[in-house]
């Protein structure tokens, strides 16, 4: 069996902890987006008040859930590409383009959802 041990020289341990923190942050974002999706489906409101019938419902919740899945895939992509770079002792501080594209899409979904929900409140 081949060992995948990486010698702890320089900032190796810190870099590995950074990779773990990043993937956990992606999972946290995905959980929040799926919670938003569920609340849109259930018409849950933080402040009780008059319930409006046209809340976006299924289409907006589907987009939120898709963004959650994209966030998970982006986190896994970044973790495994960073771990491969760490094992081969290559610099990996520059973000990979697929990860940046996926996270830009997720950020666009979050921004668009904010706009849709603000418009629906009026």
Descriptive report:
The protein has 122 residues and is mostly helical. It has one domain (14-45, 56-121). The chain has helices at residues 12-42, 57-87, 97-121. Helix 1 runs antiparallel to helix 2 (57-87) and helix 2 (57-87) runs antiparallel to helix 3 (97-121).
In short:
With 122 residues, the protein is an all-alpha fold.
Mean pLDDT: 82
Structural shape: elongated
Class per helix and strand makeup: mainly alpha
Helix/strand order: HHH
Helical fraction equals over 70%
Return the domain count: 1
The low-confidence parts are: none
CA distance, first residue to last residue: 63 Å
Number of helices: 3
Q: How many β-strand runs?
A: 0
The main sheet comes to: none
Share of residues in strands: under 5%
Using only C-alpha atoms, the radius of gyration works out to 19 Å
Organism: Psilocybe cyanescens
Keywords: Membrane, Transmembrane, Transmembrane helix
Protein name: DUF202 domain-containing protein
Describe the structure using short key phrases.
3 helices, 71% helix, 122 residues, mainly alpha
């Amino acid at each position: 069996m081949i060992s995948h041990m990486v010698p702890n020289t320089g900032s190796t341990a810190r870099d590995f902890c950074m990779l773990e923190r990043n993937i956990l942050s992606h999972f946290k974002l995905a959980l929040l987006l799926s919670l938003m999706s569920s609340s849109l489906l259930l018409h849950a409101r933080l402040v009780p008040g008059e319930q409006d019938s046209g809340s976006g419902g299924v289409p907006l919740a589907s987009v939120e859930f898709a963004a959650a899945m994209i966030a998970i895939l982006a986190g896994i992509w970044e973790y495994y590409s960073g771990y491969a770079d760490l094992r081969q002792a290559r610099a990996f501080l520059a973000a990979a383009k697929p990860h940046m594209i996926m996270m830009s899409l997720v950020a666009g979904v979050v921004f668009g959802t904010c706009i849709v929900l603000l418009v629906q409140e009026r």
